[in-house]
Every structure is written in structure tokens, then in C-alpha cells.
UniProtKB/TrEMBL annotation:
Gene Ontology MF: a single term: DNA binding
Protein name: Two component transcriptional regulator, LuxR family
Keywords: DNA-binding, Phosphoprotein, Transcription, Transcription regulation
Any one of the GO BP annotations: phosphorelay signal transduction system
Protein species of origin: Microbispora rosea
Pfam (any one): GerE
Residues that bear 4-aspartylphosphate: D58
Length: 220
């Protein structure tokens, strides 16, 4: 049985890329592309008007870039933001994730991975393989400009701090459960508590916080 349809907006200034992603997603029975945008400002307006579940945002767009659009969308709506990037040239992915994006997709993403990513993000989980996001964030944190040290880790219990560290290392719920010798249900509770106590949107931001707090060192 097909669940609720996932509503998506695709924003990219390259019409062929935008149209290709939209065609792939629209072909799925549980996904509907409700809008497209060719620049960041149009993307924000589309999200405000159409209230999609997920928006795909290219980082480099005219009028308003994807990072600024992500900040507005994350602050004003409950729409989940996925950034589109070329890994070898975009040095702003960390800033995009920090601004509220739930993750990233490479523009040469495989068809099945694109569809899977939209479903996973719409369900509120981390985007794609956690280890991929972990490596990217680790690289960006090591090169990013200094930021104020985050506060609030003292609000976590010892087990919640362990959970945050393992999230930062890119482990899945099942892998964390194995490490801590607890059930996956217990891990989900720990993850939920970590996100709530630290005011984080999702697991990707938890990975960022693990690096920023020094629980995980880039390259470790």
C-alpha cells in the first residue's frame, strides 16, 4: 500500500538538470513534483506557496543562492531542504548544512539514489549513507572559518553523549544499538532526546554538532 504522497519542489538554474530530476521523481507513485524554480528567490516563493515536503536546492543560483534560500526556508517552514552540489567545486556545503539543510546530493546522483534520498529525507531521517555526509562535514569543519563553541552538551546524559558521538561517526541506528548493546527503539529514543535537547533539526545537524563540540575530530 502506498503511503502519503511526498510533495517536492526542484530548484536549479539549469533547465535540463531541473527537468531531469523532476521527470525521475514524478514517475514514482509516491512522489509528486508540485513546482520548479530557476533561482533561489523563486524557490523560496514556491515553497511558501506550495508547502512541499522536500525541496531540492542548487547551491549556485542567480538572484538568491541556495544557501540563502535554505536559511529562509528552514526558518519559515517545515520543508526539508536537500542541496544539489558538485562535490569537487562547491566549498559552501558546510554552510548550507549549518543553515538548516538536511543533507546534499551530487548532481550526477544515480536515479535510484535520488528517489531513495527524497523518501528518506521526507521521513525525517538522515540523507543517504551517513558515512558520506560524515566525510563531507569533517572536511568542511576542518576548513571552515571559526565559529562560536556550541553550548548545551551538559544537558545530555552520558548515554546521549555516546549516541551523539556515534552519530558523528556515521553509524546507523542498528550499528549504534550494537555498540551500546541496546534495542533500536532505545537508540531512536536517545537520538530524539539529543535532537530535542540541542535544538537540532535532524541527524545531519547532530553530526555537525558532534564535530563542533570536539566529540569527533576531522579525519578521526
Amino acid at each position: 500500500m502506498i503511503g502519503p504522497v511526498i510533495r517536492v519542489v526542484v530548484a536549479d538554474d539549469q533547465e535540463l538538470v531541473r527537468g531531469g530530476f523532476a521527470m525521475i521523481l514524478d514517475a514514482q507513485p509516491d512522489i509528486e513534483v508540485v513546482g520548479e524554480a530557476g533561482d533561489g528567490r523563486a524557490a523560496v516563493e514556491a515553497v511558501r506557496a506550495l508547502r512541499p515536503d522536500v525541496v531540492l536546492l542548487d547551491i549556485r543560483m542567480p538572484r538568491m543562492d541556495g544557501i540563502e534560500a535554505a536559511k529562509v526556508i528552514a526558518a519559515e517552514t517545515g520543508c526539508r531542504v536537500v542541496m544539489l552540489t558538485t562535490f569537487d567545486q562547491d566549498d559552501y556545503v558546510y554552510d548550507a548544512l549549518y543553515a538548516g539543510a538536511s543533507g546534499f546530493l551530487l548532481k550526477d546522483v544515480r536515479r535510484d539514489d535520488l528517489v531513495h534520498a527524497v523518501r528518506v529525507v521526507a521521513a525525517g531521517e538522515s540523507l543517504l549513507a551517513p558515512s558520506v555526509t560524515r566525510r563531507l562535514i569533517g572536511d568542511m569543519v576542518s576548513r571552515a572559518r571559526p565559529r562560536p563553541a556550541p553550548a548545551g552538551l551538559d544537558a545530555l546524559t552520558a548515554r546521549e553523549r555516546e549516541t551523539l558521538e556515534l552519530l558523528g561517526r556515521g553509524l546507523s541506528n542498528a550499528e549504534i544499538a550494537g555498540r551500546l548493546v541496546v534495542s533500536e527503539h532505545t537508540v531512536k529514543t536517545h537520538v530524539s532526546n539529543v535532537l530535542s535537547k540541542l535544538g537540532l533539526r535532524d541527524r545531519v545537524q547532530a553530526v555537525i554538532r558532534a564535530y563542533e563540540s570536539g566529540l569527533i575530530l576531522p579525519g578521526s
